[in-house]
């Protein structure tokens, strides 16, 4: 699952169409749109709004295995030549606190990279900027996301809309700008998903076998944990599945003594 | 994922000659300037295993804690003033049993370029006592010689100082120092394990054959080397594999060229083992019969494994040169 965060609806709109996201009408606090693979929250402008929206979204919808967070939005730049380009952010400076946040960029990607400075207000003077790009959400997003995600699961992509002059920035202009980059962003998202896929040791069937056996033997929480680890170690060490445990499903357990005996019997086959 | 796709450089050392030399070797890497290495290295929630696959580099200045007292879990060879130091945090090798996993919050490699400050600190210490200093515990320094030249600098430093310096390595990189005069107070220690153990546990390390070749080069220069057979890792056919391995090693290395041999079974501080298990519960290191004894996570039969290997080694090397790790005897020294 990818969690997308944009400050403005105009930044979100092209994603909603492209990924065919549906609005969550039950959510009264934020505009949230989702499908099976992506969930987008419109956070509102500013680092505090961004942090609140990240925390609320992840608290409400939960984090799935192998998911990651992406903050996308338009940004200003000191340099006119950066206008219209998309940048993956490799360093975020909070202009207020001067704290520095460094995303863990581990993937090979096709974007240019830049640093980013997050301000509490729109920036019109380049001399105020330490970084090449400026926005109003980055540091808030990063700090909130880093409470939930590993460092390599947090990304910021910034599309330069202006060189601090705000010239020609309208809702339609933003939508058009984003639409032009959607394919590249989609490729990036697919690449991230592939790069960090984790393999599970047990198949779904094996997980069910371990659970069923634990239920049948009425194992305590601690015994379940011991059985799980014994199965894991057996599978890794012997390079064999644990399907044979089905053979123990018929064991009758009516009291604690019988449970202990049955448990030891099962474990002896896993050592 | 590429290694060193990003190099993070502390502003304070961006003009240091070594920084410039290292950066020149990676013209395609993205350079990100930072204030302190901790901004990258100490970030919350870093994933060690993922970072290892795409390890990046941090170039920094060491500002304090240049030396550490030697760990109780490391062989001190009877030296009371045992210290270790490190110009580099983390390693390019990926040994599955390594205690560095979970020791630091990050798997990225940190190179502290201000060697001169390390030397200044050690000079102060050796005025008062003779120390035994191991310089390659938090990394394999010789493996990174092409990048840093640190091993050479340490040897040159030791040649005019009264201290005993140990350089531990798994690398086959001794030829990088071939032109250098190695003084008698510098000990090269090669970690050797059977090839099946290397295949299973020591990703990206040189083969046993390559290590032995490197050792032969060192011996041909008149060096008496240390052999570290640790961590002794259990595997099926243990006795056959280890006796064959010991035979292979000592058919290559004459006894007179061996300064000493140390043997120690796989062991980790209990808390460290927990952290590693959290990172990778499916690691093979947890899949054999292990136990926590005196706050140390090790094999239940660790002593048996050590003793077996020691007896095999003693067939080729006099017993007074063989050190078997024994925590209880050592604890009185600290």
UniProtKB/TrEMBL annotation, chain A:
<protein>
    <submittedName>
        <fullName>Nucleoside phosphorylase</fullName>
    </submittedName>
</protein>
<dbReference type="InterPro" id="IPR035994">
    <property type="entry name" value="Nucleoside_phosphorylase_sf"/>
</dbReference>
<dbReference type="GO" id="GO:0051539">
    <property type="term" value="F:4 iron, 4 sulfur cluster binding"/>
</dbReference>
<dbReference type="InterPro" id="IPR049539">
    <property type="entry name" value="SPL"/>
</dbReference>
<dbReference type="GO" id="GO:1904047">
    <property type="term" value="F:S-adenosyl-L-methionine binding"/>
</dbReference>
<dbReference type="GO" id="GO:0003913">
    <property type="term" value="F:DNA photolyase activity"/>
</dbReference>
<dbReference type="GO" id="GO:0009116">
    <property type="term" value="P:nucleoside metabolic process"/>
</dbReference>
<dbReference type="GO" id="GO:0042601">
    <property type="term" value="C:endospore-forming forespore"/>
</dbReference>
From TrEMBL, chain B:
<dbReference type="GO" id="GO:1904047">
    <property type="term" value="F:S-adenosyl-L-methionine binding"/>
</dbReference>
<protein>
    <submittedName>
        <fullName>Spore photoproduct lyase</fullName>
    </submittedName>
</protein>
<dbReference type="GO" id="GO:0051539">
    <property type="term" value="F:4 iron, 4 sulfur cluster binding"/>
</dbReference>
<dbReference type="Pfam" id="PF20903">
    <property type="entry name" value="SPL"/>
</dbReference>
<keyword id="KW-0456">Lyase</keyword>
<dbReference type="GO" id="GO:0003913">
    <property type="term" value="F:DNA photolyase activity"/>
</dbReference>
<dbReference type="GO" id="GO:0042601">
    <property type="term" value="C:endospore-forming forespore"/>
</dbReference>
<dbReference type="InterPro" id="IPR049539">
    <property type="entry name" value="SPL"/>
</dbReference>
